[in-house]
Design brief:
- The complex is a heterodimer.
- Chain A is an all-beta fold.
- In chain A, 0% of the residues lie in helices and 53% in strands.
- Chain A is built from no helices and 11 strands.
- Chain A is globular and about 40 Å long.
- Chain A starts with a strand and ends with a strand.
- In chain B, the strands form 2 sheets. In chain B, strands 2, 4, 5, 6, 9, 10 and 11 form a 7-stranded mixed β-sheet that branches.
- By secondary structure, chain B is mainly β.
- The chains are: A mainly beta, B mainly beta.
Chain lengths: 116, 107
């Protein structure tokens, strides 16, 4: 079965760091364009960061704090998150795109809670 | 940044009826527009891309139309499994942006 599985979420204090991972099964993740999308509790969807063609891009709201990367040998996507704020609290989804930047496969998400 | 505005915020429809959801872009996105469905406790699911192309396996009762700044998602005859939140997303320009969503609820 083709699927994405996120991990690495949890409770972290403001100013802390966390690294999210996204592993693929059933296909080679890293040949596709990949994106992290988040959803704050009870809210809508927000694009966070993408990697692919052309290179990497990141939302202004997380610029300088979040870094997207991928490891082809592990078939895994990452999101390094530093200097976390309360407003970063959300369910973080890993997604893949095929050709253009719409998201044809989503993981189930991993929850990040930033609170003291 | 392109702002995506969806209307209405909530749509109350009886099963079997037609639902029409709107999405407006603050500037032209050509046909680079996708629609997603999200049910409670689940990840979003791609329904439509390229404004009007149905994703693999999507029932024909779902259709998308529009280009430029005005887009529509139509569900011709609502089934029980269609009650959900629907989001549009533009991928014509960075940053990628989503609409605020339309909740389709049972009337």
């Amino acid at each position: 079965e083709v699927q994405l599985v996120e991990s690495g979420g949890g409770l972290v204090q403001p100013g802390g760091s966390l690294t999210l991972s996204c592993a693929a099964s059933g296909f080679t993740l890293t040949i596709y364009d990949l994106t992290w999308v988040r959803q704050a509790p009870g809210k809508g969807l927000e694009w966070v960061s993408s990697i692919g063609n052309p290179g990497t891009t990141v939302a202004d709201s997380v610029k300088g704090r979040f870094t997207i990367s991928k490891d082809s040998s592990k078939n895994t996507l990452y999101l390094q998150m530093n200097s976390l704020r309360a407003e970063d609290t959300a369910l973080y989804y890993c997604t893949k795109s095929s050709g253009k930047w719409n998201f044809d496969l989503w993981g189930r998400g991993t929850l990040v809670t930033v609170s003291s | 940044e392109i702002v995506m505005t969806q209307s209405p915020a909530t749509l109350s429809v009886s099963p079997g009826e037609r639902a029409t959801l709107s999405c407006r872009a603050s500037q032209s996105v050509s046909s680079n527009l996708a629609w997603y469905q999200q049910k409670p406790g689940q990840a979003p699911r791609l329904l439509i891309y390229g404004a009007s192309t149905r994703a693999t396996g999507l029932p024909a009762r779902f259709s998308g139309s529009g280009s430029g700044t005005e887009f529509t998602l139509t569900i011709s005859s609502l089934q029980s499994e269609d009650f959900a939140v629907y989001y549009c997303q533009q991928y014509n320009n960075w940053p990628l942006t989503f609409g605020g969503g339309t909740k389709v609820e049972i009337k």
